[in-house]
Amino acid sequence: MPRRLAAEFAGSLFLTAVVIGSGVMGARLSEDIAIALLGNTLATAAILYVLITALGPVSGAHFNPAVTLAFALRREIGVREAVLFMGVQSVGCVVGAMLAHALFELPLIQLGGAVRAGPAQMLSEGAAAFALVACILLVLRAKPEAVAPAVALTIAAGYWWTSSTSFANPAITIARSLSDTFAGIRPQDAPAFILAQFIGAVFATLSCAWLYRARAAQAESTEAAARSVSNSGG
Q1: Which domain holds residue 169?
Q2: Is 27 part of a structural domain of the chain?
Q3: Which of 51, 69, 125, 215 is 20 to 30 A distant from 234 in Cα terms?
Q4: Where are the beta strands (DSSP E) in the chain?
Q5: DSSP per residue over 17-75, as a string?
Q6: Measuring CA to CA, how many Å separate 80 from each of 67, 72, 76, 120, 144?
């Protein structure tokens, strides 16, 4: 357990440091918001691929309370373990934000100033969390070795198809509320983001469970039909 928690802490820390740090660098290098966002996207996708590949065998590489909740609902992780995971993920993300600020000689703790409010952004966060959790659960069954690139590509796409730029992570939302940078969010907007993310994760978990049951029922029906045909032919 200590090693698993350390992996979740480290992964959350470096993920947040890259998200915020690349946002700061992008904004400093270009006045064009689209170019800054592109740099932010590529850096985030790259570190996700590396972190999931490196730390997946240790802890499962959740780095996200919404993902941990999904596995807890599936009873693949215990309640106590899930609570510990969520705690270290949140602390890791906050420390990651502080590290990013230190790298660019910014105040370590800030209050986010970026306005991210309204129904469209809440829907975006729910949809982004749904897409992320569904991606993980479905790809794990279809092709486990492809989870790292699949998650990286899902988040990269989320930066551009959602109006919220796809936070999709309650812990990183908390950290970004403490960063008055390109990747920040106002603290008063964070609770609605977090609620939407958890709701999206729950819906994704339930939807994937239904898909698995439907597929199993179809397989059983096909197998039964094949046996019937075989018996008739005999």
Answers
A1: 2-228
A2: yes
A3: 215
A4: none
A5: HHHHHHHHHHHHH-S-HHHHHHHHHHHHHHHHHHHHHHHHHHH----SHHHHHHHHHTT
A6: 15, 10, 12, 34, 26
Q: What pTM value is reported for the model?
A: 0.90
What are the φ/ψ torsions at residue 147 (nearest 5 degrees)? -60, -45
Contact 141, 212 (CB under 8 A): yes
DSSP type of residue 187: G
CA–CA gap between residue 178 and residue 161 (Å, rounded): 25
CATH number at residue 43: 1.20.1080.10
Q: How far apart are CA 69 and CA 2, in angstroms?
A: 20
Please give the backbone phi and psi of residue 208, each rounded to the nearest 5 degrees, phi first.
Answer: -70, -40
pLDDT, tens only, 87-142: 999 999 999 999 999 999 999 999 999 999 999 999 999 999 999 999 999 999 99
Output the CA torsion 136→78→193→129 (10° steps): 10
- What are the structure tokens assigned to 164, written together? 């919220």
Other CB atoms within a 10 A radius of the CB of residue 69 amount to: 23
> Are 68 and 169 a contacting pair, CB within 8 Å?
no
